[in-house]
Automatic annotation (TrEMBL):
One Pfam entry name: Fer4_NDSU1
Similarity section: Belongs to the complex I 75 kDa subunit family.
Cofactors, names only: [2Fe-2S] cluster; [4Fe-4S] cluster
PROSITE patterns linked to this entry: 4FE4S_HC3, 4FE4S_MOW_BIS_MGD, COMPLEX1_75K_1, COMPLEX1_75K_3, MOLYBDOPTERIN_PROK_1
Name of the protein in question: NADH-quinone oxidoreductase subunit G
Subcellular locations according to the entry: Membrane
Source species of the chain: Methylacidimicrobium tartarophylax
Every 4Fe-4S Mo/W bis-MGD-type domain range: 255-311
Gene Ontology terms, MF aspect: 2 iron, 2 sulfur cluster binding; 4 iron, 4 sulfur cluster binding; metal ion binding; NADH dehydrogenase (ubiquinone) activity; oxidoreductase activity
Length: 561
């Protein structure tokens, strides 16, 4: 499904574009008509170095790093191509190089990426780029993922012939609430300018001054406050734009990278979790053209911080007269299960979060089936509404609303007023909150005090956990493996990046323990194991496998959503 507004397609040719033959470093290959030379080379495993080019931005052609040697078919007096013995056009090579980003494939195009002319030009461009560049690689946040640094090793001369004093430019310029600019590092690729104008729809950056004193600047009396501003730090090929949140926190080569998805709204942007020694340091977008292209919003990117909150619940506990008393997991789960078993099904209600994975919701469904028998147990999810921005941000702030509907958990919040009424009337005397705060959902604290049993399972302490008889500490999205269904019906995987802190456990482990304590079937100890059982019994997921979801996810048929 396309994004709500899709400005991402300064597009590569479609799959049904006409095909043409081009000669790439001596070999004839077939590519789509109109494909630019950088992408032609990339498709065949060759790198043409570049800085200003980005596949989702307009062509600027100003860094000149992607110079290549270009050939065109020789033509006879009749203006038809002259063919060789194999029927291929004979090529004549232009005396001056061309830029690969702005040159597109046509029949008979010749491309030399590593000829003496191309390599000489690339080395010359690198020498100019490095002439005024500051020697601050040891303290630059971009070190380890800096294209200038990488290409300097491959295409640089290894020494500088520049003996004059380097041009000084502003450093540590605060251009927005979440981003800083170091103008001395900027190589004027204009990626950030084009992103702000074309993608974020916030035209606030530009180039000022002239010649060697050109510098990136923000328009007078403006701030780069877009909710997508941090994407410019991702696409900046040097360390000119850095994020305030990650700046000087961690060297990127120390980070373990885990593929996952953002759980801040129903879009489900694909992300890479950067972690080290049990601590998440950053989220960065991962390319998925069906979901988020190359981008993600700042809100989602910074949404991992509650994982390490001082309000994190770290151990299972039972409330006594003196407050919460920690216990051992097997004993706690057994006692909670026994308390649930003693209830009359209509007196129990489940308040479930649509931020849980499909596998966790499936286990909630099985737990409910075990407890309710022939009587129905009241079950509802809590809706979270925000404001869609027409780009990636969804107005549904629950990441798995579709999954909860598919698995029959709740009615999207429609029954929440009924829950309060049932507690007031004494029909509901027990409440199990799974990653939800009943008080925020509209149940006053004084009503919670009337309950004979209140079980809370979650991450951060809240009003409900303060009243709960049992507290079961669960796991965040970065501490579990599972799947979710985004707003477009795409089933996508989360992967565990760090272990749960303290004695907190993955929610699949907790729910499995309760089901086993109640005499139910063992449905698996991990998200992938539970997924197999879920896919076998849930029509919408039938035919899917955990490995088959891959890194990009699988789109459900329209009738299954």
């Amino acid at each position: 499904m396309a994004l709500i507004r899709n400005p991402f397609d300064h597009d590569l040719p479609s799959a049904d574009s006409p095909r043409v033959h081009v000669q790439l470093d001596g070999t004839w290959v077939e590519v789509p008509l109109g494909l630019n030379v950088i992408e032609v080379a990339r498709r065949f495993g060759k790198l043409i170095p570049h800085y200003c080019y980005h596949p989702k931005l307009s062509i600027a052609g100003n860094c000149r790093m992607c110079l290549f040697e270009m050939g065109t078919p020789k033509r006879g007096p009749d203006r038809k191509p002259i063919l060789d013995a194999e029927g291929r056009p004979e090529l004549q090579w232009m005396p001056r190089p061309q830029i690969a980003c702005a040159t597109t494939a046509f029949e008979g195009l010749g491309i030399r990426t590593g000829s003496p002319l191309a390599e000489s030009c690339q080395k010359g461009v690198m020498e100019f780029l490095l002439a005024n560049h500051p020697l601050d690689c040891p303290i630059c946040d971009q070190a380890g993922e800096c294209k200038l640094q990488e290409h300097a090793f491959d295409y640089g001369k290894g020494r500088s012939r520049f003996g004059e004093e380097k041009v000084k430019k502003p450093k540590r310029v605060d251009i927005g609430p979440r981003i800083l600019l170091d103008d001395e590092r900027c190589i004027l690729c204009t990626r950030c300018i084009r992103f702000a104008r074309e993608i974020a729809d916030d035209d606030c950056l530009g180039i000022t001054q002239r010649g060697g004193r050109n510098r990136l600047s923000i328009y007078p009396d403006k701030r780069f406050a877009s909710n997508y501003s941090l994407n410019t730090a991702d696409i900046c090929p040097v360390g000119a734009l850095t994020t305030k949140d990650f700046r000087f926190r961690m060297r990127v080569w120390f980070l373990k990278e885990t593929k996952s998805i953002c759980v801040d709204c129903a879009t489900g942007c694909n992300v890479t979790i950067g972690s080290r020694e049990g601590f998440v340091h950053r989220l960065t977008p991962r390319v998925n053209e069906a979901v988020n292209s190359h981008w993600m919003c700042d809100q989602g990117r910074l949404g991992f911080h509650p994982i390490h909150s001082k309000h994190r619940v770290l151990e299972p506990a039972r409330r006594g007269e003196a407050g919460l008393f920690p216990g051992e997991w097997p004993l706690v789960l057994g006692q909670v299960a026994e308390s649930l078993r003693k209830l009359e099904p209509p007196s129990l209600a489940l308040l479930v979060s649509a931020r849980l994975t499909n596998e966790e919701l499936f286990l909630v469904q099985r737990l409910r089936d075990l407890l309710q028998g022939e009587s129905e147990i009241f079950t509802e999810v809590v809706p979270r509404k925000g404001e869609a921005d027409g780009l990636l941000r969804s107005d549904d702030l629950n990441p798995n609303s579709r999954g909860s509907r598919i698995l029959g958990i709740g009615a999207g919040g429609e029954k929440l007023p009924e829950l309060r009424k049932r507690i007031e009337e004494g029909k509901v005397r027990a409440l199990f909150c799974l990653h939800e705060d009943a008080v925020s959902a509209g149940v006053p604290e004084e009503l919670l005090e009337r309950l004979s049993l209140l079980v809370w399972q979650g991450i951060l302490a809240d009003k409900t956990s303060e009243k709960a008889h049992w507290v079961l500490p669960g796991a965040s999205f970065a501490e579990k493996s599972g799947s979710m269904v985004n707003r477009a019906g795409q089933v996508q995987r989360l992967h565990q990046a760090i272990p749960a802190p303290g004695r907190a456990k993955e929610d699949v482990w907790i729910l499995r323990g309760l089901i086993l304590a109640l005499g139910g079937e063992d449905l698996g100890q991990s998200g992938p194991e539970v997924f197999s059982k879920m896919a076998a019994t849930t029509p919408a997921f039938q035919g899917l496998t955990w490995p088959g979801l891959g890194d990009q996810g699988v789109s459900l048929p329209a009738e299954a959503r």
